[in-house]
Design brief:
alpha+beta; Immunoglobulin-like; 4-stranded antiparallel sheet; 3-stranded antiparallel sheet; 10 strands; globular
């Protein structure tokens, strides 16, 4: 850091750095340190969402640029969560379920014969109080592998390789062995995850998997991060 020309400093000497300048220098040092040890293309927790921000899937944090994310990976919170994740995986015996011992986050590809795509049904829904619109997905997995629960993941238009990237859309992927992973094309709108508005449920008896999503209203999307302007309440 350049400590010259600061308030209270003598000619040729170092002044007192401000708190913001100190924090900026610390983040830059952490970013350079992370660049030497981390390859973002191979980081399993690095995710670029549909609005161009960067997310840490491990800590559930959002960052405006890759430098901020790299600095985050060297921080206490990320390192603590990595240690907790490693301890939990070791306790659950993940290395016996297809994970290579000694290599964190690397999964051995299983030779599973795919049996096709599941049947599905899509219903448009609307919350009667908030007037939010959404979808209810019903997928049928009659031959699902015992002990397997379907998994859901959202993907931006820039991650997929099927269609030309279009920032107005996002994709929802549903995976369950031995079926092929299926994807649904959605509007690139923020999904409301509060108050159990987004939920999934797998019926072990009927082998049907349910997914409900509700999009935030335009007001909630616009003012969700503005102090003093919380989400709108129920409309009368």
């Amino acid at each position: 850091m350049d400590y010259q020309n600061r308030a209270g400093s003598k000619f040729g000497g170092g002044g007192v750095a401000s708190q913001s300048a100190t924090n900026a220098d610390r983040r830059e040092r952490l970013r350079k340190l992370a660049l030497e040890t981390i390859d973002l293309d191979k980081d399993p927790y690095f995710f670029k969402n549909h609005v161009g921000s960067f997310e840490c899937r491990l800590c559930l944090t959002v960052h405006q640029n890759d430098g901020s994310y790299l600095a985050h990976t060297q921080g206490r919170k990320h390192q603590t969560n990595l240690a907790r994740r490693a301890a939990r995986e070791q306790k659950e015996g993940r290395d016996r379920e297809g994970f290579m011992p000694g290599v964190q986050g690397v999964q051995v590809k299983k030779n599973v014969v795919k049996i096709g795509r599941p049947g599905y049904k899509i219903t448009k829904i609307r919350d009667p109080l908030t007037r939010q619109v959404g979808m209810l997905y019903q997928l049928m997995y009659p031959e699902i592998t015992p002990g397997i629960t379907p998994r859901v993941r959202f993907m931006s238009a820039y991650e997929q390789k099927v269609d030309d990237p279009d920032k107005t859309f996002q994709y929802m992927l549903v995976a369950a062995e031995p079926y092929e992973t299926c994807g649904f094309k959605l509007q690139a709108r923020e999904i409301d995850r509060k108050d159990d508005r987004f939920w999934t449920w797998f019926d072990e008896d009927t082998k049907e998997f349910y997914i409900q999503i509700l999009f935030k209203t335009e007001r909630d999307e616009r003012y969700s991060n503005v102090p003093g302007l919380g989400p709108s309440g129920p409309r009368k």
